[in-house]
Design brief:
The complex is a heterodimer of chains A (325) and B (236). With 325 residues, chain A is mainly alpha-helical. Chain A has helices at residues 3-29, 35-58, 63-80, 86-104, 106-129, 140-147, 156-159, 162-182, 189-211, 215-222, 226-248, 255-286, 295-314. Chain A contains 13 helices and no strands. Chain A is elongated and about 95 Å long. In chain A, 41% of the residues are buried. Chain B has two domains: 4-161, no CATH class; 175-235, no CATH class. Chain B is mainly alpha-helical and 236 residues long. The mean pLDDT of chain B is 87. Chain B starts with a strand and ends with a helix. Helix content of chain B is 57%, strand content 8%. Chain B is built from eleven helices and four strands. Classes of the chains: A mainly alpha (325), B mainly alpha (236). At the A-B interface, helix 1, helix 2, helix 3, helix 8 and helix 12 of A face helix 2, helix 4, helix 7, helix 8 and helix 9 of B.
Chain lengths: 325, 236
């Protein structure tokens, strides 16, 4: 291109580039973009591609070429971006997607649950045979309280208010569940360790309280929140194991592809599960430590909440008749 | 090490993005870390002052452990822990630290990552931060071809340099400048002027002389400012 032609080209195109940059900015920033602006942005994409090709041949590494590359890239991102329908996506996640993922992980859930109960049985047997080993699973203060015939959960509301308890509990539970998922990256062994240790501790503590005649009280304490909490831990364990499996047996995909797919599915399922953990934390903060609630009431709450989790994870919501327009 | 990400497009005109290495990533992280610590501390101080009743406009708060934890500690912890996931979603793959460091998160096709990949990326911080000071994440960025941490591998994302040329269309060379120099050399001159403050005086003077001497003899003894002035005249 002669310098005259180049100069004319630049003179003609500069206003167009500025206009496209302004329109693109308006389309990207606003929640709603006028259709004419969107059409102009789309129409500009091949034009800017052509201009970029010219600029690259005339001044390959100049600021003008870099600016055109930047605007071209922004156009590319804007045009080929998936539509942002987060309300729809969240609804679909709770109604059908979580159930589909949970369904595909059902055998993982079964195996993780088996591991948990095997560990719990081992913990219970261990403390039954060697009660002096309870120090491995419980703090000194807890042991002293149990030995004096009281659960450590007694008077919990005198120590901290329900609101604080609830927040502490669900934060901790969410952290433990998410950690159980991500340590699945160690070929599932990290997850297996966490599930095994949790089972071992639960079995040991139950066995120790049973030796002191407090097992029923402990069951009464956990009846309202424990079913959902434990179920979510099992689901988190299954997600973690699936990450390990994706790395160990990627199938037809590459390891990275399988790992990415498993991670995305695990994250989606955990969004649903963590929502349930918030509810379980509120129950554990407000209902479980309050002695005025009877065991039948606690069981109703616990089993009812578990039923809700099962409804969501079984896909029953997606089978409900849809309202007609 | 593979330092670029090629973005193919339907027009056949591809674009390459420079991938940020461990240095660029760490720089952005350190800035973000300082921001979130300062914001969390600021909240604790402000809410603490309000909570202890020193601010007379809010006298009704009764001090208790629960109130303190919920009004002071919890929001501060939330600000600290949710800083990355929330800002990365709202700022479409950027955070203030990333913006300052000139990097952004993109998908492997160069696009803006959605909520899902950004959440996965942040979920795996739990592993990347093991056993302390992001050792696993830092080691991963040093050992992987595209300098990615475990969270990026899981989410299918990577960090690239965000090379926006703000105002590049506004100070484009004039027709006379192009007629005199041709577009390529006019752009070289413009690039040198833009980078003038970043370059050492000796280096920029030498570069300016080489460019100017192609057009006209340059007298000895011209200082830094005079050389720059002459470069700007070439573009007018």
């Amino acid at each position: 291109m002669t310098t005259h032609k180049t100069s004319k080209w630049l003179e003609d195109r500069l206003p167009v580039w500025r206009d496209v940059a302004a329109k693109l900015d308006a389309v990207e920033r606003g929640r709603y973009a006028e259709p004419e602006k969107v059409v102009k942005v789309i129409a500009a994409y091949p034009e800017i591609a052509r201009d970029l090709a010219v600029a690259r041949s005339e001044a390959p590494r100049g600021p003008l070429t870099r600016s055109l590359e930047q605007i071209y890239l922004e156009l590319h991102r804007s045009i080929f971006r998936s539509p942002g329908r987060w309300r729809h996506d969240v609804a679909a996640l709770f109604v059908s997607e979580a159930a589909e993922i949970a369904g595909s992980l059902r055998w993982h859930i079964v195996w993780v649950t088996a591991l948990f109960f095997a560990s719990a049985s081992a913990g219970a047997w261990l403390i039954n045979q060697y009660p002096e080993l309870v120090g491995l699973f419980a703090s000194e203060a807890m042991i002293e309280q149990v030995q004096s015939g009281r659960l450590w959960t007694e008077g919990l509301l005198n120590v901290a208010p329900s609101s604080l308890l609830a927040v502490q509990i669900f934060t901790n539970n969410i952290f433990v569940s998410l950690f159980a998922v991500v340590v699945g990256i160690f070929y599932g062994l990290g997850t297996a360790y966490i599930i095994g240790m949790n089972g071992l501790m639960l079995g040991a503590v139950f066995s120790y309280t049973a030796q002191h005649g407090l097992a029923e009280q402990l069951f009464e304490f956990i009846a309202a929140h424990g079913f959902v909490e434990l179920s979510v831990i099992m689901v988190a364990g299954a997600c973690g194991v699936s990450l390990g499996e994706a790395l160990a047996r990627p199938g037809r995909e590459t390891r990275v592809q399988a790992f990415q797919r498993a991670s995305m599915r695990a994250a989606k399922l955990m969004v649903v599960c963590c929502t349930f953990l918030v509810g379980a934390g509120l129950i554990e903060g407000y209902i479980s430590p309050n002695p005025s609630y009877s065991l039948p009431f606690r069981l109703c709450i616990g089993l009812g909440y578990l039923a809700l989790l099962v409804v969501v994870l079984s896909g029953a919501l997606s089978r409900l008749p849809k309202p007609r327009d | 090490m593979d330092g670029t990400l090629k973005i193919p497009s339907v027009t056949g005109i591809d674009v390459e993005l420079r991938i940020a290495g461990p240095g660029g990533r760490s720089y952005a992280f350190v800035i973000d870390w300082h921001i979130r610590v300062l914001v969390a501390l600021a909240w604790m101080i402000v809410a603490g002052v309000v909570y202890f009743g020193s601010v007379s406009t809010i006298p009704s708060l009764e001090p208790s452990q629960g109130d303190f934890a919920i009004l002071v500690m919890l929001p501060a912890a939330g600000l600290y822990l949710l800083y990355h996931p929330v800002l990365e979603v709202l700022m479409r793959g950027r955070t203030p630290g990333k913006r300052i460091a000139g990097v952004r998160i993109v998908k492997r096709d160069g696009g803006v990552p959605g909520i899902g990949p950004l959440l996965v990326r942040n979920l795996f911080r739990l592993v990347d931060s093991l056993p302390f000071f992001y050792f696993v994440g830092l080691a991963a960025t040093m050992l992987t071809r595209q300098s990615v941490r475990i969270g990026d591998i899981a989410a299918g994302t990577l960090l690239v340099y965000d090379e926006a040329e703000a105002g590049a269309f506004d100070d484009a060379p004039s027709s006379r400048g192009i007629a005199r120099l041709g577009l390529e050399r006019a752009e070289l001159v413009r690039d040198l002027i833009a980078r003038w403050p970043e370059l050492r005086p000796n280096a920029r003077s030498a570069l300016a002389r080489r460019l100017l001497e192609r057009e006209e003899p340059v007298p000895e003894g011209l200082d830094d400012a005079a050389l720059r002035e002459r470069l700007e005249q070439l573009l007018r």
